[in-house]
Amino acid sequence: MLMGMMNNFYRYKYLLWVLVVRDIKKKYRRSVLGILWSMLNPLLMMIVTAMVFSTLFRFDIPNYILYLLIGQVFFSFFSESTNFAMNAILDNASLLKKVYVPKYLFPVSRVLSSCVNLLFTLPPVLFMMYYTEQYPTFDVVSIFIPLVALLIFCTGIGLALSAAAVYFRDILHLYGVILTALQYSIPIIYPEKIIPLQYKFLLLYNPLYYYLSAFRQVVYMCKVPDIHTIVACYVFAIISLFLGVVVFKKAQNQFILYI
């Protein structure tokens, strides 16, 4: 099943490229700053959040600005890519009714376009590392190890969500609530040590925790992620992709009746 999808990716590579470019252009249409918002948005969100939490809660976290920025950039990509992919089939209903193309190209293109936006946020992260005197080492290139795993993980989630949204439109509204719960279930804005011991097990079963940990090890701690974290990231990525492909394959033949 996966090999067939990979062959189709090569066969329809130009279409996939066009879809990714179209999604990026659509996002920044009629915007004065355009794609620069991908760089400015995480910085502005970090400034606002850091002012609130560093003043009101006073978390004892060294270099809290960088700690917070990494978490926000990571979760923004997960949130945007899966949310964007969820609407892929419904948004392209008119095209799917007119011509045959592999339907999974649409949610995959949404995840890839979000990944391009994520790459544009990396320069602000490097800037903040220098600004906070957390100078990057050569190990910073290892950020692509968890990034590839996260891309695969989000692709699997996006495939499943895009199929589910065709049959259950309520998920379009429910998913925003789920994202909020997920955002506060992992230590993005707060330190991990404040989580009560009896609830620590919840982190161990949360895939997002391992991806966040891997990104922080690279950028915040300036080291290559440990093997346990890397293995966990790729195990969750493979499981997510497998389940997403299975769900999408079983549902796609009936899409035309519901879109």
Tell me about this structure:
The protein is mostly helical and 259 residues long. Helix content is 72%, strand content 0%. The chain has twelve helices and no strands. It has helices spanning 2-11, 13-27, 37-56, 64-86, 88-91, 93-98, 105-131, 144-167, 171-185, 201-204, 207-219, 227-251. It starts with a helix and ends in an 8-residue tail after the last helix.
Brief characterization of the structure:
This protein has helices at residues 2-11, 13-27, 37-56, 64-86, 88-91, 93-98, 105-131, 144-167, 171-185, 201-204, 207-219, 227-251.
Short key terms for the protein model shown above:
single chain, about 260 residues, mainly alpha, 12 helices, about 70% helix
Global shape: globular
What class, by secondary structure content? mainly alpha
Taking all residues together, what is the mean pLDDT? Answer: 82
- Provide the succession of SSEs: HHHHHHHHHHHH
Largest sheet: none
> How many helix segments?
12
Give the N-terminus to C-terminus distance in angstroms.
24 Å
Rg on CA atoms, Å? 19 Å
Q: Stretches where pLDDT falls below 50 for ≥5 residues?
A: none
List the quaternary state of the chains: single chain
